[in-house]
Amino acid sequence: MSGVWIILIVIYSVVMISRAKSRAGGSGKKPGAAGGASVRDNAGKRNDAAKSVPDRAAQARQQTPLRQQAQHSVTDYLRQKASADEAAHAAADRMDEARLSRETGGRTVGRRYSSWDSVPKGMRVVKCGYCGAENLIPEGARRKNCTCYFCREIL
User: Fold this and answer.
1) Per DSSP, what are the bridge partners of residue 55?
2) How far is CA 41 from CA 26, 44, 46, 80, 143, in A?
3) Which whole-number Å values give the CA distances from 75 to 61, 67, 84, 86, in the listed order?
4) How many degrees, rounded to 5, is the angle at CA 27 between CA 26 and CA 31?
5) Residue 108: burial class (beta carbons within 10 Å; 0-12, 13-18, 19+)
6) Distance between CA atoms of 65 and 155, rounded to whole angstroms?
7) Beta strands in the chain (DSSP E)
8) What share of the chain is helix, strand, coil (3-state, %, to 5)?
9) For each of the chain's 155 residues, which pLDDT tens digit applies?
10) Which backbone phi and psi does 117 adopt, to 5 degrees?
């Protein structure tokens, strides 16, 4: 009995598939699928299926330079953007240096000293009289020619 039901389900599904194909407008064959069959396109021109394969290859060859051109244009754009960003960063660095020079009056800014670090050769530790921060300044430099790294006061 169950074998009969399976056969009925298979027949029903085949009928439904064939109806769906007939509603879709045709015998279920795709245009250009047959080897030498000819079909009409939307403009009513006759196209042979055998000719459509080389046409696709020609289109692919024509698209390749366009893709390369698009890749080159993206690469060029990114290169230009990188150089513009680099110029902007350089300008910001120059502005920071100018601001620092104005704040310190052209004096040398001390470097931060941490108590667990050793004092480098040619440097000495000077404590700021205003904020108490310990600064590293060159050994031969005078205190009045240096400013604190933290508060920018003259040491």
Assistant:
1) none
2) 15, 5, 7, 45, 90
3) 22, 12, 14, 16
4) 75
5) middle
6) 66
7) 38-40, 46-48, 108-109, 111-112, 123-127, 134-138, 146-147
8) 50, 15, 35
9) 778 888 889 899 898 888 888 887 654 455 444 444 455 555 555 555 545 556 666 666 666 666 666 667 888 899 999 999 999 999 999 998 888 888 788 788 888 888 888 888 999 999 988 888 999 999 888 888 889 988 888 88
10) -85, 150
Question: Tokens in use for 113?
Answer: 């000293």
What spatial distance separates the first Cα and last Cα of the chain, rounded to whole Å? 104
65's tokens: 């330079």
Number of residues that this document lists for the chain: 155
Residue the block writes with tokens 């230009």 = 80
With vertex at residue 22, the alpha carbon angle to CA 17 and CA 24, rounded to the nearest 5 degrees, is 95
Q: Using an 8 Å Cβ cutoff, are 43 and 30 in contact?
A: no
Query: Token pair of 93, please?
Result: 């660095």
Q: What residue has token string 């620092």? A: 100
* Amino acid of residue 111: R
